[in-house]
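Thread: NADH dehydrogenase, FAD-containing subunit, structure

OP (GT): Posting the sequence first so everyone is looking at the same thing. Length is 396 residues per the record. Can we get the structure tokens written out before standup tomorrow? I want them in the notebook alongside the other entries.
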Amino acid sequence: MKHRIVVLGAGYAGAYVAGNLARRLSPKDTQITVVNAVPDFVQRMRLHQLAAGRDIEAPKLADVFAGTAIRLRLARVTAVDPERQVVALTSGGGELGYDTLVYALGSHGADHGVPGAAEHAFDIAARPSALRLRERLDSLDRLGGRVLVVGDGLTGIEAATEIAESRPGLSVALIARGELGARLSDGARRHLRRACDRLGITVLEHTSVDAVEATRVLCSDGTALASDATVWTAGFAVSTIAAAGGLEVTENGRIIVDRTMRSVSHPDVYAIGDSAHAIGDNGRPLPMSCASAGYTGRQAIEAIVGRLTGRTIPSTKLVYTYNHISLGRRDAILQGVDDEGRAKPTYMSGRKTARIKAGILSMSLWATSHPTYGMPTRRHRLAAAHASSPVGSRPA
């Protein structure tokens, strides 16, 4: 019986890991299955651009994995039972057994219980919601209107600047709980303010939102802000599936892993990307980010290949060194951070920085869409202990 590797989620982290495992492990004794809710690869880092009106490529996963021997299951994951080593699926999928599980379900927008946010606000954490926002903005373009972006993290800043630049007929305001760009250096913060002024974005600092209604946002100081489209970017959360299944998780539901991305409670489960609570080389938890997805994914690949083939497991880098923020199509900020996660005094900005960001996005898409690139002619066979894992057994 082949060793069954199941990857949950085909975002940046999941698709990358699945493709690389297919490149490095022999199909003679491994079977790799990817479970994903939608048939397309979603460029989540560009969903704010999609919402603003850009055409963003969404490759079919069937095409991405063609020729890799990877099996694609289109279904939603409803539960994980790590004791029985099975995953429950929707769409008539029943249960799917595994010997090694890679948990890469990522994160989604979180309304933090703010009344009306789920019903009346748009989030850009998923393609369907980004398209709904796009449709709403299209309707406002003909009449004009006011767009409120709630949340001044990286996603909120990128959304506000992209919408303001792409749709100059709309009035855009950015609501910040504290000071705008508080995590940036002084120089980068000044550049961000100049960019908002150039794009006509109204910045409302030190403002908290208590409720969202269909045509306005209610703030904690009692003010009501008119809104024809409220964009909610005030936080992200992970699914409760891991916690419900009995995996050891943090208070916010992220799976606690060791240095090799292996669950500390269930050694046949690996977690990567936003789903993982991984400690970086600086001793601090890696933040939810595309960069963290790449680093945790790379370490998981080395660990899985090493353990299954009896090879030494190298320690790959687990670092977080910068924040890269798009400010529309022709401007961006590249802000370096130190080992404590604090902004360094130096930063980059302007058109060159925007081109660097665009290049990173293009490379990420290319790498994910070409998992067979560099496919070796001879791939690693599994060690005897893993070559025919019986159902219900756990890899050592």
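GT: Both are above now. Quick notes for whoever picks this up: The CA atoms of residues 257 and 348 lie 34 Å apart. Residues 112-232 form a domain with the FAD/NAD(P)-binding domain fold (CATH 3.50.50.60).
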